[in-house]
Write a structure and sequence with these properties.
This protein is mostly helical. The chain contains 23 helices and no strands. α3 crosses α17 (331-349), α7 packs parallel to α22 and α9 (167-173) runs antiparallel to α21.
Length: 475
C-alpha cells in the first residue's frame, strides 16, 4: 500500500494550496510599508506632510552603494555555483539520496550550510542540487518537486544572516555602509568607537555560532517530516514542468584561436593575472589589519567571492557568461531598495525613530528586549524583505533602545538577524531568484516554508532570550 502523508506533510500541502491563492508579489509589500510609514509620520510626529515628502525624497537614493553591494553578493554567488568544478560536485551530491525524504533533507542541509558562507551562492548551489535530483529517476517513487524547491531556499530562512554575508553584521562592520546619524546613535558619545561593531561581536560570538547547528538540525527534521512519502508527492512532470537534461556548467561558444580577441577571451592567462593581483591585495589587506575579523566587510567579501569565481571558471568568457546569466536575479533588489531607503529617510528625518525607541523601552526589559527585537524584525521583514535595508530603517531606534536598556549591542544585531531570516519563510521576495530556475511560483513552495516558520520561530525566540542573558553591555 502507498504510505500516507504524516500530519506535518498534510499541513504543508494544505498551506501550499492557501498561498497559491492569497500571497501577492513582494513589491506590493514595499509599497504598503511606504504608505504605513507615511501615516505613522503624520500621526505620531510633529512633521508636516510636506516635511515627510521631503524626508522620503532625500532618503530615496541613500542606499545606492549598498544596493550595488547586495546585487554583487547575488551575482558572485551565482558565478561560484555555476562554475565547472561546482557542476561536478553537484552531480556527485545529487547521486547520494535514495528516498524522497532523504533527498529533501539533503538539499536542506546543503542550503543552510552553504548560506553561512554566502547566501547568493547558497540559493543557486542548492537549487542546482535540487534540480539535478529531480532529473534523476533512481529515487524510489519520485520526490515532491515543490518540497525540493522549498528546501533549496531554507538557507535564507534560517542561518544565512548569522554568517559571513549577513547584511546587518556587515553593515555594522563596514565604514560607510550606514548613514552618519546611525553611526552616532551606535557610538553613544564615544562608548563604541566610530559606531563600528566588528564581526567578533556579532556572527563570531559563541552564542551566534551555537545557534547555527541547532537551527540546521531542527529545520532538516521538519523538512524530512513534511516531505510526502513515495507516491504521494508531485514530480516535475506532474506539474507540467519539463526539466532540461543538459549539463550544469555554462556553455560558451568555442571560438578557438580564430582571432586574437577571441583567443584572449578563451585564454586563462588574463584570469590568473587578475586572480594573482586580487589575491595579493587580499593577503596584504589582512596582514595589515590589526585584527583580521574586524577587517571583513562587504567589499572584501565580494572581491574574494569574485576572485574565486574567476578562478573556478578559468577564462574571461566563461566569467562574463556567468555574470550575464546572474543579472536577471537582481532586478527586485534594484527596484525595491530605493523604496526602503525612502522609508528609512522618513523614520530618521521626522524623528519617528525616537518615538519607536521609547515604545521599545516601555514594552521590554533588559532580559526581554532581544526577544522583542527578534519578533519585530520578523514582522517588519514581511513588509521590508531585505536584511540590509530593514536594518537601515530600524537601527536608529533599536540601537538607541539597546543603550537605554544596557543590552549587548552585538547580540541585538545577531538577534535582529535571527528574526530577519524567519521573515523570509513567509515573504516570497528572495525566493524569486531561484524559482525561475524551477519554473515555479512562490505560492507553490510556501506551504513548506510556512511549516518551517511555525516550528522554528519559538526555537529562535528561546535562543535569543537565553543566550542574551550570558552577555554584558555594551560589547
Amino acid at each position: 500500500m502507498t504510505e500516507q502523508p504524516g500530519a506535518v506533510a498534510r499541513l504543508a500541502l494544505a498551506l501550499t494550496d492557501w498561498t497559491e491563492r492569497w500571497v501577492p508579489d513582494a513589491f506590493i509589500f514595499a509599497l504598503l510599508a511606504t504608505v504605513l510609514v507615511i501615516v505613522a509620520g503624520v500621526t505620531a510626529t510633529p512633521a508636516t506632510p510636506m516635511q515627510i515628502v521631503d524626508a522620503w525624497g532625500r532618503g530615496f537614493w541613500e542606499l545606492i552603494p549598498f544596493t550595488l553591494q547586495m546585487a554583487l553578493i547575488i551575482i558572485t554567488g551565482h558565478v561560484l555555483a555555476t562554475s565547472p568544478p561546482m557542476g561536478r560536485l553537484i552531480r556527485a551530491i545529487a547521486s547520494w539520496p535514495r528516498t524522497p525524504r532523504g533527498a529533501v533533507a539533503l538539499v536542506a542541509v546543503f542550503a543552510m550550510a552553504s548560506s553561512w558562507f554566502n547566501w547568493g551562492f547558497s540559493l543557486v548551489f542548492s537549487a542546482m542540487i535540487a534540480l539535478e535530483i529531480a532529473r534523476r529517476q533512481d529515487i524510489d517513487g519520485g520526490v515532491d518537486y515543490r518540497a525540493l524547491a522549498a528546501a533549496s531556499f531554507l538557507g535564507l530562512g534560517s542561518v544565512w544572516a548569522q554568517g559571513l554575508s549577513g547584511s546587518a553584521a556587515l553593515q555594522m562592520a563596514t565604514p560607510g555602509a550606514l548613514q552618519p546619524q546611525i553611526r552616532d546613535i551606535v557610538a553613544h558619545g564615544g562608548l563604541v568607537a566610530g559606531g563600528i561593531i566588528p564581526f567578533r561581536h556579532t556572527i563570531f560570538l559563541w552564542q551566534s555560532l551555537v545557534s547555527v547547528p541547532i537551527e540546521i538540525a531542527i529545520v532538516t527534521l521538519v523538512m524530512y517530516l513534511a516531505t510526502p512519502p513515495a507516491g504521494r508527492g508531485k514530480a516535475a512532470k506532474d506539474l507540467g514542468i519539463t526539466l532540461e537534461t543538459e549539463k550544469l556548467e555554462l556553455k560558451t561558444e568555442n571560438q578557438g584561436s580564430q582571432t586574437p580577441g577571441a583567443w584572449l577571451e578563451h585564454s586563462p592567462i588574463l584570469t590568473w593575472c587578475v586572480v594573482a593581483l586580487g589575491g595579493t591585495y587580499l593577503v596584504r589587506y589582512f596582514l595589515q589589519a590589526g585584527e583580521p575579523l574586524n577587517a571583513i566587510n562587504l567589499n572584501i567579501l565580494n572581491l574574494a567571492f569574485l576572485l574565486v569565481g574567476f578562478a573556478l571558471h578559468g577564462t574571461p568568457v566563461r566569467l562574463m557568461k556567468a555574470v550575464q546569466n546572474a543579472t536577471p536575479a537582481i532586478w527586485g533588489v534594484i527596484l525595491q531598495f530605493p523604496f526602503y531607503a525612502g522609508i528609512a529617510g522618513i523614520i530618521t528625518g521626522t524623528h519617528l525613530s525616537d518615538r519607536l525607541a521609547d515604545v521599545f523601552v516601555r514594552l521590554s526589559t533588559q532580559a526581554t528586549f532581544p526577544l522583542l527585537v527578534a519578533v519585530y524584525s520578523a514582522v517588519l521583514g514581511v513588509f521590508v524583505p531585505s536584511g540590509g535595508s530593514k536594518w537601515v530603517i530600524i537601527a536608529p531606534y533599536v540601537m538607541d533602545a539597546a543603550h537605554k536598556l544596557h543590552v549587548h549591542l552585538g547580540w541585538i544585531v545577531s538577534t535582529y538577524d535571527l528574526g530577519e531570516a524567519l521573515a523570509n519563510l513567509v515573504q516570497p521576495f528572495w525566493m524569486l531568484p531561484i524559482l525561475g530556475l524551477f519554473k515555479l511560483g512562490a505560492r507553490d513552495v510556501m506551504g513548506y516554508t510556512i511549516v518551517v516558520f511555525l516550528v522554528l520561530t519559538p526555537v529562535v525566540l528561546i535562543l535569543v532570550t537565553l543566550l542574551g542573558m550570558t552577555l554584558g553591555y555594551p560589547l
